[in-house]
Amino acid sequence: MGRQLRVVHRTGYRYTGLVSASHNEARMTPRATREQFVQATRLDINPVAWTHTFTDYWGTSVTAFEVAEPHQRLDVVAVSTVEVGDRLAVGPGVEWAELAEDSFIDKHIEMLAISEHVDPGAELRRIATEAARDCARPAEAVAAIIGRIRERVAYVPGSTQVNTRAADVWEIQAGVCQDLVHLGLGALRSAGIPARYVSGYVMPSATPVVGEVRVGESHAWLQYWDGAWVGLDPTNDVAPGDFHVEVGVGRDYFDVPPLKGVYSGTESSDLFVEVEITVLG
To answer: Are 117 and 63 found together in one domain?
Structure first.
């Protein structure tokens, strides 16, 4: 039986002056998957905007919108009710030989590519390569690699910026969920294991009261290929469960930002975010 959650995600921009127009994309609608049923969802935008909704290349729901009137603040509110069931914690299994086949690599090439955002640096690449050599199966290497990342890198809010590279996170030994995921992606891909970024939400309490609104947070975890996509939350050292709500997947954070856009007018803006999660049953 699934867990029913209500998520309210408020975000937007405060501009330092008047903006004549803005063009934006919101990725704030939970994905419909075998483990996650979206019962209801809506996206409210103020000022009123022209909108177009589509599913992007990676399978994430996107609402593109344009505000053509002058405004000094943009508010976007996503309200969703989701039923989350049991997620795959262990895959069917895959052998190293299969990961090395040309046809497999060609199929998963995008989730094997190491961009500058996820490049873990020489030391962690070496650790990943050694794990691939020493572990009998890819899933064992995943556990070993993520374990090394967690040993070295502490979760420290405010220690990095959105553009901080994975290699720099490894050096300063601190980061947030996005950084731990980027390190994991780069390291697993260095070992030849396809891995992808997952954005979403997580309930902050392991024992929430039904009907009680809790201040939640946007969150990130990863999925790696083990005969199927298997989730792993490096920040909390768990397999994502029924308190994780999946919104987007991609190669890294920059494929799935909740809100991004361009505007004409003032020189600067301030992004604000607030997430509330309620267990309904």
So the answer is: no
Q: Tell me the pLDDT tens digit for each residue of 160-194.
A: 999 999 999 999 999 999 999 999 999 999 999 99
CATH of the domain at 67: 2.60.40.2250
Please count the structural domains in the chain: 2
Q: Write the CB contacts of 101 (distance below 8 Å, at least 6 apart in sequence).
A: none
As a whole number of angstroms, the distance between CA 148 and CA 180 comes to: 11
Phi-psi region of 59 (alpha: psi -120 to 50; beta: other; left: phi over 0): left
In the chain, % of residues over pLDDT 90? 93
Sheet harboring 213-215: ordered strands across? 36-46, 71-84, 3-19, 269-279, 213-215
The pLDDT mean for the chain works out to: 95
| Residue of 210, 199, 229 lying closest to 88 (CA atoms) | 229
CA–CA separation, 136 vs 228, rounded Å?
18
Q: Mean pLDDT lowest for which of 18-32, 202-216, 220-234?
A: 202-216
Give the separation between CA 153 and CA 173, rounded to whole angstroms.
Answer: 4
Residue 91: inside a domain:
no
Residue 247 lies in a domain: no
pLDDT tens digits for range 215-270: 988 999 999 999 999 999 999 999 999 999 999 999 999 999 999 999 998 778 99
Tokens 């867990």 label which residue?
3
Q: Which two tokens stand for residue 247?
A: 């919104």
CATH code for the domain of 194: 3.10.620.30
* All residues at 6 or more sequence positions from 16 whose CB lies less than 8 Å from its CB, including other chains: 266, 267, 268, 269, 270
